[in-house]
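Q: What would this complex look like in 3D?
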Amino acid sequence: MLVIHIQLYSILREKLPEEAKGRADLQFELGSTLTDLLGELGISRRVVISMNDEHETDRTRELQDGDEIKIFSSISGG
Amino acid sequence: MSHGYNGKILHVDLTEGHLSVEEPDEAFFRKYMGGSAMAMYYLLNDMAPGVDPLGPENVLVLALSVLTGTAVSGQSRMTAAAKSPLTGGIGDSQGGGFFPAEMKFAGFDAIVIKGKAEKPVYLWINEGEYELRDASHLWGKITGEAEAALKEELDDNKIEVLQIGPAGEKMVRFAGIFSMSNRANGRTGMGAVMGSKNLKAVVVRGKKRPSVADKARVNQLARWGSSNLADSDIAGLAKYGTAETTGSNQTSGTLPAYNFNSGVFDGWEAIDGTTMYDTILKGAAEGKQDREGRDTCYACTVRCKRVAEIKEGKYKVDPHYGGPEYETTSTFGNYNAIDDLAAIAKANELCNKYGMDSISCGATISWAYEAFNEGKLTLEDTDGLDLTWGNADSMVKLTEKIAKREGFGDVLAEGSARAAEKIGRGTEEYLITFKGQEAPAHMPRVKRSLAVIYATNPFGADHQSSEHDPAIEGDFEFYTDRMAVLGFTEEQETRSLSDEKIRFAMASQHMYSTMDSLNLCQFVYGPAWQLYGPDDMVELVRAVTGWERVNFEELQIVGERRLNMMRMFNAREGIDRKADVVPDKLFKPLKGGVSEGWKLDRDEVEAALDKYFEFCGWDVETGIPTAEKLEELDLGWVVAE
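A: Here is my prediction, written as structure tokens for the whole assembly.
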């Protein structure tokens, strides 16, 4: 098993209990990917992901123990 | 039987004090639909080329569309257009709120304003009746005070007031026109034009709802929007405001910082939409901000507008003046490396009180910050203000000085391009202006179609004139159905300027141009992530007007028609391809973060411009629409001008 630290912003915070303010530590099986994480959180729409302070667009990227992942709901204009 | 519009245009000659009503036929409304396209018709017909934008010969048009005032989200918006005192070419801006719908209820589709009143006046339109009234007692008042005085004077709390603040009176070149004291027709200096005419306000009141061809279908669309908002891509924007996009821009290296020298800003989280929601929205302390800290436009279910309130501390903020958008948190915040949300909210309040565009204001200040940090401006130039990156106090003070045209503020009130010309010392290299208008908070070095649109857009840099690159790049898979309606079925490479990308820029520009003519909100309608897509837009026009044969192609032509009229307006002013210039700064590499080193390439941009003009059917050498293109768009009368 591995543990990752996530921070969700804006409307995505509501995927977690209100008191969590979008923060959570989640456990995954070794070999799990960003797609698994999004599935676990029930996110199917467009999001922008920061993984250890890098912009990550590859949803097949495997999660590593201790990863810091920020997920943003966002429009692309405005 | 016409539906959706009143069929009445009010013509106001302020010099003569003469008011008259024109009643165009249905073909006119079908051809131009309203808003910006309709405004262009009057500007091209009623104004001679070469006039002083701040002189009485300039014409200011306030225009609604055939959809304004119907009970569906995203329709209560109005165009303000005139020759721009900021760019010297066409000026155009869009604003929302309740004024647009109320103006429709008061009986008019557009107001065409010429001349200059001898002394300050306001235009009062009440249930189809109209008159000019003395506004001497309102001159000099900030927006909130003038609005309150008018409500008392007219003894009616339900009037809607569209006005300029003191910055418009003083003709700050990026002064805007405001309603509700917090909704702006912000861009291109339309408030300065209104100020130059001694027109303080337009006040409207009416109860006549526009007739709708098929109310059931309009209601169905409205209900669909309400039901689907929570599951849509704008759910976050609705609840957390446009500044929700700060973090994603930071992540993708598209958050303009340090006056566009960087695409990232370490202090972003202190000023983003989530933090704003948790801290400064009205009611946040009691957890009531969802109800008290959000506001809306007439009949809109989205409620994306912010209401900020700060009662304690150095920067107190009055909720009457709304709250900052993403553009404002950026231009006052990350542009200047400022992470003080209270200071940014204060600057936003000042812009709304005094009536200034927060994009050009913050960006002009950012030009000064860079010049100061590079040693090109000194404390002697800045009236003693320390403009070191990150200094929030100086930013707030400078905002007020600009509004009042005091000291160094008077230099900046001319906009950054004129300020750089006056100061010299090589400060031109810090400009991020296109045709003299400061760039909004998006990054053409990464979203490269924006370089083409910003350069060619007739009124300068504008982030709301086309769909941004992600819709046809990494996000394409989410929007395949809507993008296919626009004509695009293949994802494009990130940061490319492929032919297909340029065609996307043009086609989406036509759709956005259509939306500015239908006066539709571009968060609520659009070709990708917006609540409603292109098909819904067509259905709305059909259901409201009864023009059942309207299709997407016809609507795209309305947008293309507007754009071509704007290019022709500029051509008459001697503005052609030579003015379609990307500022030097964008050819220099970004520093820091994920976008480190990214820059535009001059040859690639020039080749893209060639291709864009070719696709538009414009002369590639001059960028001017050809006679054939104008004939094709049923604009032969423009050629004859």
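A: To summarize the key features: Chain B touches chain A at residues 233-237, 239-240, 242, 244-245, 247-253, 272-274, 278, 325-327, 442, 463-464, 467-471, 474-475, 478, 522-523, 526, 528-529, 594 (CB under 8 Å). The mean pLDDT of chain B is 97.
Q: Very helpful, thank you.
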